[in-house]
Every structure is written in C-alpha cells, then in structure tokens.
Design brief:
mainly alpha
C-alpha cells in the first residue's frame, strides 16, 4: 500500500511540473 501512496505522490509532482503535458489523475 505504501508503494501506491508513493506513486500518487510522484504522479502529483510530475503533474505539477509538467501540468500541461499530463493533467493530474485526481484533482481535489
């Protein structure tokens, strides 16, 4: 389960960095 959390965190960071290339999978 920790891997899943880590993956989401990574995705969020990547999304924040690119933002335009790939939209966030989950937005608050």
């Amino acid at each position: 389960m920790q891997d899943n959390n880590n993956r989401i965190s990574s995705d969020a960071a990547i999304s924040s960095t690119e933002g335009t290339a790939t939209p966030p999978p989950r937005s608050p």
